[in-house]
Amino acid sequence: MPEIERESHSFLGASSSHRWMHCPGSVRLYEQLGERHESEYAATGTAAHSICEACLLDPKKEPEMFLGSILDTKEFHIPVTEQMVEATRVYVDFVREQYALFGGKLMVEQSFDLSWVHGGMYGRNDACIYPVGKLAGTLRIYDYKNGRKQVDAANNPQLLYYALGALGKDNPWFVEQVEMSIIQPNGIGKKAIDTWSISVDELYHWAENVLKPAALATEAPDAPCFTGDWCTFCEASAYCPAKRDAALNLLKPATPSHPVATLPSIATLTPQEIGLYSAFFTSEEFSAWVKALAAEELACLARGVVIPGRRLVEKTTLSNRKWCDEASVIREFGDEFGEEIYNSKLKSPAQLTATLTKLGVSKAEAKERVDALTVRDEIKSTSVISDNGTDECPFVETTKLFD
């Protein structure tokens, strides 16, 4: 399939609104980052969205038709799995059912411009249904989420942003209220479909009194940064002064005689300090910051930026075994062991090896016969190591945590 093209994202976009509305300084950081590498997580979401789009644009297409295909994004080749098909099926079925129930005008991946609220604000909706043939009615917004982290529809700034984009400045569709639905089949601890409504008057009030002031706040040269749950997917975490200060405040300050900040010995900590350190270093916030720092280091080295004492190294490992040709496996074991070689489908190499052993085949023979029918793909990954060949950086000094 050709590469999936997605239009560029606004620094004041809908998907990042939860972040920049709480952390106005993050926009300045993003403007300084330049071109960013696509993550596999984001690429998988892009691939799933492309299936949703294709099926809503063409009633003859179904998510199952994409099973086993490879969808190319900007930097990744994403295989369409059964899980992706099942998830996108929930979204496609729901939007189609809503369209059949309410009628109107269905718009898919509709681009919009919110410059009437503030310059530089634009985006596009996954899908929306406009009321048609009525003097007033309900505008319906549908947003597909491929991730697992729970996202609620109520008072969601991203949905409100999308609603304003679909509604426009002057409400030409004579809409009275907007019904917004998040469809998140992979979400943890939540129902797959979450719906919330708001009146048009309340929506325009939010645009003028909440969204616009938040956008204006990002323009201040000294716009502050704040930490919170909006930091989770922030690509500027490695540069964030708020993150930096939270970490440095826990270190012993550098002195002229000892110019490197260090961690204190645990034996010297008070109970209050022990609780503070433990809460910070085991928190999701700190973990996210460390991951962001590692990702930024990898991105810098990949772009040719020199980081003293650090370099890239490519590693090759082998994936789990998979069948070269399932028909050959059936010919080899089918007559001899019958249904024992299947679960709901043909067992994996590891599962069949264990089954053959249980059925009296020696481990050595089972491994030899199964391995002859399997192949292992090479998995290449890039990691950062120090120039002396270890994972330790000689330019970072720490004290022993235990004396």
Portion in helices = 25-40%
Number of helices: 12
Radius of gyration: 27 Å
Rough outline: flat
Molecular structure report:
The protein has 403 residues and is of the alpha+beta class. Helix content is 38%, strand content 17%. It is built from twelve helices and eleven strands. The strands form four sheets. Strands 3-4-5-6-7 form a five-stranded mixed sheet, sandwiched between helices. Strands 1-2 form a two-stranded antiparallel sheet. Helix 5 (157-167) links the parallel strand 5 and strand 6 (175-183). It is flat, with a radius of gyration of 27 Å.
Topology:
Blueprint: H1 17-22, H2 25-33, H3 40-57, E1 70-72, E2 77-79, H4 82-102, E3 105-113, E4 122-130, E5 137-144, H5 157-167, E6 175-183, E7 193-199, H6 200-217, H7 241-248, H8 271-281, H9 284-302, E8 310-318, E9 322-323, H10 326-337, H11 349-358, H12 363-371, E10 374-375, E11 378-386
Parallel strand pairs: 5-6
Antiparallel strand pairs: 1-2, 3-4, 4-5, 6-7, 8-11, 9-10
List keywords for this structure.
single chain, 403 residues, alpha+beta, Lambda Exonuclease, Chain A, 3 domains, 11 strands
Describe, in short, the structure shown.
With 403 residues, the protein is α+β, with helices and mostly antiparallel strands. The chain has helices spanning 17-22, 25-33, 40-57, 82-102, 157-167, 200-217, 241-248, 271-281, 284-302, 326-337, 349-358, 363-371, and strands at residues 70-72, 77-79, 105-113, 122-130, 137-144, 175-183, 193-199, 310-318, 322-323, 374-375, 378-386. The chain is built from twelve helices and eleven strands.
